[in-house]
Amino acid sequence: MNNHDVDYKLYGDDMQFVEVELDPQETVIAEAGSLMMMDDQIRMETIFGDGGSSQSGLMGKLLGAGKRVLTGESLFMTAFTNEGIGKKHVSFASPYPGKIIPMDLSEVSGKLICQKDAFLAAAKGVAVGIEFQRKIGTGFFGGEGFIMQKLEGDGMAFVHAGGTIHKRELQPGESIRVDTGCLVAMTGDVDYNIEFVGGIKTALFGGEGLFFATLRGPGTVWIQSLPFSRLASRIFAAAPQRGGSKGEGSIAGGLFDILGGDRK
What we know:
Oligomer: single chain
Number of domains: 1
Shape: globular
Order of helices and strands: EEEEEHEEEEEEEEEEEEHEEHH
Radius of gyration: 21 Å
Low-confidence stretches: 136-145, 245-252
Distance between the termini: 64 Å
CATH class: Alpha Beta
CATH topology: Double-stranded beta-helix
Strand content: 35-45%
Number of strands: 19
């Protein structure tokens, strides 16, 4: 894969950022909007496609870009190259509270499957594509299967997840069921399926969603305690529904709303 060999350092605890050290002419790729800071003499360039070393020629770049569109990402990624004569640093920040997980793809057989919004940055040469899972017993996804991102190569990749991260080593034949939003990443040897939650009460009133990810070993799984979708839904539910109203967030204001008061 000819991945660039980059060094890194993590800073922070719950609001982490990763500092990547680049030797002259080394490059790291990242999602647009993840940059925090960078040294002088680092060239920033927008690239078309998934950033993999295999994306040569117009057709290769179009295929790479098409894969990214299917996962809901932008057509473009950003490449940061050290054009100086010494070591330079570029830093990428987490988009919400959580942890950054450094992944050496050479230690996971060159392939990692992760949530489509979990990828943060990677050494140049790592291909960011899609992973299809068609073993779904429902028609909710139109037969297209459950789509996750696929990171391939032998270099470093950085994945972000919310809350506390739990790494689970599954033995051969061992299986667990995980809320689909809590699944961050897994190695390519894990057999996974998406299953409908049985029982109409559980599905509609249990608050856990309609689907579980069933993961079967052998392999390694990373699970997050606070998916961004769950965090966003709580924030939205707690947000005041009337812009600029008096006493927003106060107990008195809440009681006033319950009693049908009109705050003007």
